[in-house]
Structures are given as C-alpha cells and as structure tokens.
Known about the structure:
Blueprint: H1 3-34, E1 40-44, E2 48-62, E3 65-72, E4 77-83, E5 93-96, E6 103-109, E7 114-127, E8 132-143, E9 146-147, E10 149-154, E11 157-159, E12 161-167, E13 174-175, E14 181-184, E15 192-197, E16 207-212, E17 223-226, E18 231-236, E19 244-253, E20 258-268, E21 275-277, E22 282-285, E23 291-293, E24 298-301, E25 312-318, E26 324-330, E27 337-341, E28 347-357, E29 372-379, H2 397-408
Parallel strand pairs: 1-12, 14-20, 22-29
Antiparallel strand pairs: 2-7, 2-10, 3-6, 3-8, 4-7, 5-6, 8-9, 8-12, 10-11, 13-15, 15-18, 16-19, 17-18, 19-20, 21-24, 23-27, 25-28, 26-27, 28-29
Amino acid sequence: MTDYNRLKRNQTIIIIQLLIILCHFFVFAHYSFSQTDMPIISCLTNDMITLPITIQLDEETHIQFIELKIRYDSDVLISKGISLEGSLLSNYKYYELNSVENLAGYMIFGTENYLTSGIIAYIQFQSKTTESSGIISLDMIQLNYSSVSGGFDIKNSTSKWVRISVRLPGVTPHISPIFSQVICEDQSSDWIQYTVTDEDTPINQINVQAVSSNPYLIPNNHIQMIGTGTERAILLTPIKDQHGMSTITLSANDGIYAITESFSIVILEVNDPPSFQKGLDQIIKLNDGYQEIQHWAYDISTGADNEMDQDLRFICTTSNNELFLLPPVIDPITGTLTYYPEPNTIGEAIVSVYLKDNGGTINGGIDQSPIQSFRITITEIPSTHTFDMNVDGKFDLRDILLIMFQISK
C-alpha cells in the first residue's frame, strides 16, 4: 500500500469515527432534552404498573393496524405484556413482535374502528425487588404505515417518557409525585396537594420540609406548608415583579430515613402598568403663542424596576381640537408639555392623557396607565383702552383700521 493510499484510509477512518461521535452526541442530547419535566410514578417493589397509551390524530382515520415499540429499563422493570380491554380498540387483536432486552414491540390489527384521538392500549410492567428508578419510553407509534403523535396518558397529560421510582416497602417515607406548576407574576400558586406515607412510622411524626433552588424568585420563607397527616399541601408565593423558574424540593424524614421529591414551577412574566403624576391646569392669554412647560408630568415610571428598558409614550386627546394650531404633546422622558394655540382664538379644552408602554398584555399584563385629565383655557387680554378693538391690550394702527371698517359697514 502506498503512503498516499494509507493516508486516505486513515482519513476515512477518522471521519467515520467523528460521525459516530456526533451521532452519539445528538442521540444523547435528544435523550436528555426529551426527559425534561417527565412525569414520575412511584411504586413499591413487585408492584404492577399499567400505563395507558394514547394517540392524537388531526382527523378521523380508519384503523387497520398500529405498531408500537416501547423501550424500558430491564434492570428495574419486567415487561408483562399489553391489554386492549377498556381501550378504544378493545374489539381488535394483537400479537407480540420479536422483543429484545429493553424493547417490547406489539402489532394491533383490525378493520372496524375509525378514530381521531384516545387511549388505544394499556402497557403493563412489574417492578423488580430492588429499590431503584428507570425510564419507560414510547419509541414509535405507526398507524397504517405512517408515524403518528402519541404517548403515555399520565393524569390527562401526554408524555413519551415516564420515570418509574421503585422503593422498598416499610423502610422509607414516601411523597407522592407533584407535577410541574405554572403561574403568573405577582400571584401565589394554589394550594398544591400531595400525600405522605410511611408503613412503619406514625404519619404525624414524618417531618416534611421544602427548599427553593432560586431564592431570588421564591425564597424559602415564601413557602407555606400545611398538614400533619397523610394529606398535605404547599403554597408558593414569588417575589413581587419577578419571573423565571425554580425547582422546589420536598424532603420527608422519619428520624432514620429521608427521601426527596422535586417539582418545577414557572412564573410567567406579566407587564405592569406605567404611571405618572400630572401637572397643573393651564391658563394663558390670547395670542401668547407657542407654550412649553418643563417637567409638567413627573414621577414617570415604566411600572416595575425590571421593566425600565421599555419604551414609553404619552397619548393625548382634546375636547376642542379647533383651539390648537399644534395640539398638546408630552415628552415621555422629561415630562415637558408643549402646545400651540390657534391665533386670535379664545376658549377651553379638556385634555385627556395616558401613558403607554410596549410591554404588551400577554398573561393579563397592562400596558397603559389610567387616564388623567387637565384643562387648557385661553382668555381675552384685559384692555385699558376704550378703542382697543382687537383686544391686545393696546391702541394702535390696527385698532384704527378696525374702527374705520366698522363705520364703513
């Protein structure tokens, strides 16, 4: 073999090895991501576990056959088969495909049913005799040669992954699983129910404590817990104007053994309304011209400290637009009020104004302040001359011309 051919062969081997590493990386990344917030089912050793399998279809479909592949941890669980009784396909038949360790396959077939969505079968496992945990995943649902969406139906929520937590009976206390919670900013959660059990310790002697992984969002002293028996509850109150995610870990201790149960809570961002204080009513004289009142509006706020990067603008409307050459405008940064009255015009206008931000109204947010009103009055100039015809406070040529015009009429 020439040096050139040897070099080409080595390059090919290196490329293949890199591709294998990349494939493992993507598979691992997908595996890790798919397990995020997966439901947890707790059981004792030698318990039977039954999981409903559901499919979701966009339209009613004739079911000829369905192929299922379920992967499981054989060190923790024993596959006990599948059942169609009580499902939407209870009148169908099935047979087991050639299964290998950690993988169970089934073919469900028939001709009678048309379905859109629902439970099609129940998969069954038995936990082994050691305390451990393992994962069951629904690798494939194929309907009439096409892949379809579906998963395990766990408390009316569909997931392709389920973690099974197996514990020894009569040794450690047990906390029931708690599903992930989602609430809005500036709100407390509902009372979240859970149960505590222990087969060899009086239940009122089981001490349960809770810890937050994000004290800047939910400090430990913002966690309330009630109950001393089997039925207990926890209530979470985030810090005002804060949003994000925290993991809450409950620990149960019977004086000898301790176990933990964790769940996540997401606090959704909610826009707070902006605010301001208005200035005084305006009274000016006829033909005073362009008006600029510095800092007329003050205490201008975006609504919360973590919303300071929002854009603000004042919205002004008047009850008498004919009174202005340029209507009232308020600068959202300085609070300066400007307007230009129509020349030779007197009158009054009520100006309604509110402050608006760009934070939106998602999750019940408020993007504008309450409306406030003020008055702009333009008055005549008091005259000291009998023949001050144009009421500008003095007698000059314009007044003479106006007198001559009146006489000539």
